[in-house]
Amino acid sequence: MLITRMKEKFPDSIIKEKEPLSLYTYTKTGGPADILVLPQEKSEVVELVEWINENNLSLTVLGNASNLIVKDGGIHGVVMVLTEMKAISISKTHIVAQSGARLIDTSYAALDAELTGLEFACGIPGSIGGAVFMNAGAYGGEVSEVIDMVTILTRSGEVKELKNKDLEFRYRHSAIQETRDIVLEVEFHLEKGKASEIKERIEELTFLRKAKQPLEYPSCGSVFKRPTGYFTGKLIQEAGLQGKIYGGAQISEKHAGFIVNINHATATDYIELIAHVQKTILESTGIELVPEVRIIGENIL
Question: Which residues form the active site (predicted)?
Answer without folding.
Answer: 172, 222 (proton donor), 292
